[in-house]
Design a protein that fits this description.
Length: 267
């Protein structure tokens, strides 16, 4: 069987911990060939984002079209979209390719607190991109924004929000519970068949820069390899948990450091 080809549509992080850079590292670590369409350049490091420079929507669409014109794409991950115009351009470019799994990570706020999605872009994301998504992968604050309500603080609220996000149009929702209080970090997968929980123990570390990007990319990579959704979600969670546990082996920056994407490959 040919090696799977994974495409990320997202913004760049020059410090290498999140965005396109994290996605490409994750694709490689998960055994797939990574490709990247840039939606935005950012000026950022482990301490925060100081600037964002958007790629023109037509050029974002041109990048996507050229990849699909020449390369077999087995899975797509969508990350930072930034504007309503880019959201529409991405949706239009992907619409002819409905058979390809799409993992949509609704990136809204960076670890340092900087907004990465214009307020008016939320409606475009919900209206145009959610119906194309095989899996939507919000964290709890992102889920609250998409639903226009308070953030979930327990499993019951997580389950309820996951079900209602599913009703917005994606085929499945993987709601990440990393922002829950306490020692556990559970995720819940909502599909038309019901809910599945993926348990996790919280790792006490500041090195969490790029966790959402990496999880969604790992999920896309596993789906591109042909894994069933529940198995792919479990594998993605294991990958990120291992990368977080090993992150202290790296010495990158003085803020929220990156994950160790190649923890299973480097000695």
């Amino acid at each position: 069987m040919a090696i799977a080809n994974s495409l990320s549509i997202a913004g760049s992080d020059p410090s290498g911990g999140a965005g396109i850079q994290a996605d490409l590292k994750t694709f490689a670590a998960c055994g797939t060939y990574g490709m990247a369409v840039l939606t935005a350049l950012t000026a950022q490091n482990t301490q925060g984002v100081s600037g964002v420079h958007l790629v023109p929507p037509a050029f974002v669409a041109a990048q996507i079209a050229d990849v699909f014109r020449d390369v077999r794409v087995d899975a797509v991950k969508i990350g930072m979209i930034a504007s309503a115009e880019i959201a529409v351009a991405v949706a239009d470019a992907l619409s002819p390719h409905r058979g390809v799994p799409v993992v949509l990570d609704p990136v809204m706020v960076a670890k340092g607190g900087a907004s990465l999605l214009a307020r008016e872009a939320v409606a475009a994301l919900v209206g145009r991109l959610l119906p194309l998504a095989t899996v939507l992968t919000p964290n709890l604050p992102e889920a609250a924004v998409l639903l226009g309500e308070a953030e979930a603080v327990d499993r019951a609220a997580m389950a309820d929000q996951a079900r209602r996000l599913l009703a917005l149009g994606p085929m499945a929702v993987l709601l990440k519970g990393g922002h829950l209080p306490g020692a556990e970090s559970p995720d819940v997968l909502a599909t038309p068949e019901g809910l599945s929980w993926f348990e996790g123990v919280r790792v006490l570390t500041r090195n969490t820069h790029g966790t959402g990007c990496s999880l969604s990319s790992a999920l896309a990579a596993e789906l591109g390899k042909g894994r069933p959704l529940a198995d792919a979600a479990a594998a993605a969670k294991r990958f990120v948990a291992g990368a977080v546990r090993a992150s202290d082996a790296l010495s990158v920056g003085s803020g929220h450091g990156p994950l160790h994407h190649f923890h299973a490959l480097w000695t």
